[in-house]
Design a protein that fits this description.
It is built from no helices and 11 strands. It is an all-beta fold and 124 residues long. The N and C termini lie far apart (37 Å).
Amino acid sequence: VQLVESGGGLVQPGGSLRLSCVASGEIHSINDMAWYRQAPGKQRELVASISNGGTTNYADSVKGRFTISRDNARDTVYLQMNRLKPEDTAVYYCNADVRYRTIIAGFTRRNTFWGQGTQVTVSS
C-alpha cells in the first residue's frame, strides 16, 4: 500500500491550499484517514482526521480554517486549508489505517501507512 500526497507549496498569509492524498495497492478497506504535520524542531502533530463514515476531528489550532474530507470510491483524502498563517508552515503527512489483501487468497492484514510528506510554506 502506498500513500501519495500532492498540493503543497508556497502561499502568502491568508491564502489557501488544498492537499490531496491517494492510497493505492492491494487495498481491502480503509478505516480512519488523517493529516499530520511536522514543523522544524517540533514533534509531528495531528491536524485532522476523518473516519470511514465521515466523522471528523480537528486540532484546535486549525478549527474553522481547515476542512478534511474523503472520497471513499477513490481512496483519497483531502485537506482544504484556508486563512493560512505562517505557523502553519510544516511538512504535511497523510496517514491511513488500511486493511489490505495478502498473497494468501482470502486473507487480509491491517496496518497504518504514511505518505512521504508535502511541504507547505506560508510566507510573504
